[in-house]
From TrEMBL:
<dbReference type="InterPro" id="IPR009072">
    <property type="entry name" value="Histone-fold"/>
</dbReference>
<comment type="function">
    <text>Core component of nucleosome. Nucleosomes wrap and compact DNA into chromatin, limiting DNA accessibility to the cellular machineries which require DNA as a template. Histones thereby play a central role in transcription regulation, DNA repair, DNA replication and chromosomal stability. DNA accessibility is regulated via a complex set of post-translational modifications of histones, also called histone code, and nucleosome remodeling.</text>
</comment>
<dbReference type="InterPro" id="IPR007125">
    <property type="entry name" value="H2A/H2B/H3"/>
</dbReference>
<dbReference type="GO" id="GO:0005634">
    <property type="term" value="C:nucleus"/>
</dbReference>
<feature type="region of interest" description="Disordered">
    <location>
        <begin position="1"/>
        <end position="35"/>
    </location>
</feature>
<dbReference type="GO" id="GO:0000786">
    <property type="term" value="C:nucleosome"/>
</dbReference>
<dbReference type="GO" id="GO:0030527">
    <property type="term" value="F:structural constituent of chromatin"/>
</dbReference>
<feature type="compositionally biased region" description="Low complexity">
    <location>
        <begin position="1"/>
        <end position="10"/>
    </location>
</feature>
<comment type="similarity">
    <text>Belongs to the histone H4 family.</text>
</comment>
<protein>
    <recommendedName>
        <fullName>Histone H4</fullName>
    </recommendedName>
</protein>
<keyword id="KW-0544">Nucleosome core</keyword>
<dbReference type="InterPro" id="IPR001951">
    <property type="entry name" value="Histone_H4"/>
</dbReference>
<dbReference type="InterPro" id="IPR004823">
    <property type="entry name" value="TAF_TATA-bd_Histone-like_dom"/>
</dbReference>
<keyword id="KW-0238">DNA-binding</keyword>
<keyword id="KW-0158">Chromosome</keyword>
<dbReference type="Pfam" id="PF00125">
    <property type="entry name" value="Histone"/>
</dbReference>
<dbReference type="GO" id="GO:0003677">
    <property type="term" value="F:DNA binding"/>
</dbReference>
């Protein structure tokens, strides 16, 4: 007996109704963990840069990874200290203040 309609349920073995099967999302970065070229291009556009040379992507990836790792290292320290597993905005703002960078409006 198959279930029809838009309920999202499928019939399994023996006619039992099972939940809809889900697919796992894959990471948008490559295997090395580098930030993709389109992502770096979007960041450059936001900064006002119109054109990028292909040779600048590798140094940009290294700089972005270094910056993110330093911010996230301090951020996880704040979350661990307050005995949380979830990072909140306040953790990030405090870690940026420790690195002498501040966000406007926070």
């Amino acid at each position: 007996m198959a279930v029809s309609g838009k309920s999202g349920k499928i019939s399994g073995k023996g006619g039992k109704i099972a939940a809809a099967k889900r697919h796992k999302k894959t990471a948008s970065t490559d295997a090395a963990g580098n930030i993709s070229k389109p992502s770096l291009r979007r960041l450059a556009r936001r900064a006002g840069i119109k054109r990028l040379s292909t040779t600048c992507f590798v140094p940009m990836q290294k700089i972005a990874e270094y910056f993110l790792s330093s911010v996230l290292e301090k951020t996880t320290t704040y979350a661990d200290h307050s005995k949380r597993k979830t990072i909140i905005v306040q953790d990030i703002t405090y870690s940026l203040k420790d690195l002498n960078m501040s966000l406007m409006g926070f």
